[in-house]
Design brief:
single chain, alpha/beta, Rossmann fold, 7-stranded mixed beta sheet, 7 strands
């Protein structure tokens, strides 16, 4: 089904295909968003007319390319990556895609980098796609850097259905459950989550609007 949708809705994209190929060849985990999900990110940035975007979790730059493509030419994306080797691969992929002038890769653990981003805030859209154990902390920082109207997107929140297990001891599941609890309790946030079944398995994403 993913192949069908990709073939019928999306044109062949050498930059994204190349980014996926280079990342795998470099030994990065094959966990980037799929082509339809990447197009969703591009369209979402355009729909909300975002000019400034924050991404937590760069990996090989696939999603960063998609986010940057939705920005106007004078827009900016700050993307945080803990692994220097991943960031090097991402920089090459992003530059080859022709969006390097809009993308600022900050290297280091996100929880060390986030506290020094205050001068770059607020952001119009924040995409959370890093280690899931820290999702609650990333969500708190996203709110710190938001304004009314900021959109938050969190990837991989269903995790094959394990998110519904209250007894799970998986750090990624526990971190995501905690994030959902924070979302539900915060009066400044209207949120939902959608399940997805695609080429990368059974998962889903959360979508939230900061209202106050």
């Amino acid at each position: 089904m993913d192949d069908y949708l990709t073939t019928n809705l999306l044109e062949y994209d050498e930059a994204l295909e190349g980014a996926a190929r280079v990342s795998v060849e470099a030994g990065l985990p094959d966990i980037a968003v799929s082509a339809p999900q990447g197009r969703f990110l591009t369209l979402l940035v355009r729909m909300v007319r975002a000019r400034s975007v924050l991404e937590i979790g760069t990996l090989g730059g696939y999603s960063a390319i998609c986010l940057a493509r939705g920005l106007p030419h004078d827009g900016s994306l700050i993307t945080l990556e803990a692994e220097p080797r991943f960031a090097d691969v991402a920089r090459g992929n992003i530059d080859r895609a022709g969006v390097g002038d809009r993308v600022d890769i900050r290297v280091g653990p996100a929880l060390d980098t986030l506290p020094i981003l205050g001068d770059d805030a607020p952001f119009d859209l924040v995409f959370l796609d890093a280690d899931k154990a820290n999702n609650a902390a990333y969500f708190r920082w996203a709110l710190e850097f938001a304004r009314p109207g900021t959109v938050l997107v969190v990837d991989n929140v269903v995790r094959g259905g394990t998110i519904a297990d209250p007894a799970s001891d998986d750090p990624g599941v526990r971190g995501t459950q905690h994030m959902f609890e924070l979302m539900a309790a915060d009066p400044r946030v209207d949120a939902t989550a959608l399940q997805t079944v695609a080429g990368k398995g059974y998962d889903g994403f959360a979508l939230a609007l900061v209202t106050g």
